[in-house]
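re: the backbone from monday

yeah here it is again, tokenized this time
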């Protein structure tokens, strides 16, 4: 094997049999089974996954919290890194042997969205939780030994030794970069840092409140710290997260359970009227309201990052928007994956963002169920699985 790959000449154009973690139903333990992975078709790439980690979107999908994610059997996972094993017809910017990270929100480069500087959405390869098969032919590239199809997840399906993704969802990175740390750019770190840089455009000397100190919230803190924010308030009901938060830029902490009054009132008192920017990273409507009201009247900006699976509408009265506050949502931190992520990766290599701090645990791929339990128990930020 070269660079962790089977001999490409032996596998190119052929079905590969490998191990994958399959979920057969909501909340059921992952089962490591042999699967068949078809060759990549037109504008597709087959990747040998070397590292994959787990985020709350994987957790909510596994638990079946959203109807869009209830498709079984399925291979979850969307945060990973690896080496290209082969490419399909028409793929010009990626070749076998390239070091890459798959991304759930792709960039085809040709559609109206990709050509617009105002968005990082993509008409063909944008994030779509309802998509369970490949775009080209509406079929899966995974199957059981018996031939039963296995569904895809968020354009990536990284809980497998090999996966097939749209070329629009594959980002080539510097071969000198650590694949282990680059894994974090597939989702969490890019989402959080990008929200601070690209969406909010946090300014030096500003004040920030972050609601929810998981990996995305901590990435927001890293991004705000790198931009020179002077007060970064971390809000979470798990005080065990505060130590890690302080190591990553958090200057002040609030546990809502320690106060009888609403959190937004506490933050207004701490900041003389409210923060310049707030980030909602919990996916809870009541938290979103607190985040919105914690910003300063006249110019406060709230960025929604949490995934809201509840059918509840926004917990805001229309007149509350007439105070000058603004609310906006962000997908993948506003990054256009293929054109902007490589430069962000270089900045991370230069130490602008400390990626190592996010990795709190490492386990072999076969212990994926233990990794999920660490996340459920609030003990891990990112558990890195080695394939």
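seq for it, each position gets an aa:
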């Amino acid at each position: 094997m070269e660079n962790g790959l089977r001999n490409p000449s032996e596998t190119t154009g052929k079905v590969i049999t490998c191990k994958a973690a399959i979920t057969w139903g909501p909340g059921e333990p992952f089962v490591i089974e042999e699967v068949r992975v078809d060759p990549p078709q037109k504008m597709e790439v087959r990747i040998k996954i070397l590292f994959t980690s787990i985020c709350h979107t994987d957790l909510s999908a596994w638990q079946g919290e959203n109807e869009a994610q209830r498709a079984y059997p399925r291979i979850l996972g969307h945060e990973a890194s690896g080496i290209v094993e082969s490419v399909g017809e028409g793929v010009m910017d990626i070749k076998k042997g390239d070091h890459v990270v798959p991304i759930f929100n792709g960039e085809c480069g040709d559609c109206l969205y990709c050509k617009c500087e105002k968005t990082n959405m993509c008409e063909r390869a944008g994030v779509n939780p309802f998509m369970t098969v490949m775009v080209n032919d509406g079929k899966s590239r995974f199957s059981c030994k018996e031939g039963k199809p296995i569904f895809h997840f968020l354009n990536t399906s990284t809980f497998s030794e090999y996966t097939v993704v749209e070329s629009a969802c594959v980002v080539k990175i510097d071969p000198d970069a650590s694949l282990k740390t680059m894994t974090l750019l597939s989702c969490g770190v890019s989402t959080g840092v990008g929200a601070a840089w690209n969406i909010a455009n946090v300014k030096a000397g500003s004040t920030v409140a972050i609601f929810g100190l998981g990996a995305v919230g901590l990435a927001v803190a890293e991004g705000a710290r790198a931009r020179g924010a002077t007060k970064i308030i971390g809000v979470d009901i798990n005080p065990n997260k505060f130590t890690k938060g302080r190591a990553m830029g958090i200057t002040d902490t609030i546990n809502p359970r320690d106060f009888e009054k609403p959190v937004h009132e506490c933050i207004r008192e701490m900041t003389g009227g409210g923060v310049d920017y707030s980030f909602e990273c919990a996916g809870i409507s009541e938290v979103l309201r607190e985040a919105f009201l914690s910003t300063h009247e006249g110019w406060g900006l709230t960025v929604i990052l949490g995934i809201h699976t509840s059918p509840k509408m926004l917990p805001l009265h229309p007149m509350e928007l007439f105070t000058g506050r603004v609310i906006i949502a962000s997908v993948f931190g506003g990054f256009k994956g293929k054109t902007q992520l490589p430069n962000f990766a270089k900045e991370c290599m230069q130490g602008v963002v400390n990626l190592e701090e996010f990795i709190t645990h490492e386990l072999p791929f076969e212990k994926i169920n233990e990794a999920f339990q660490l996340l459920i128990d609030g003990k891990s930020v990112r558990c890195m699985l080695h394939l």
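Residues 114 and 168 are 11 Å apart (CA to CA). The chain is about 20% helix and 20% strand.
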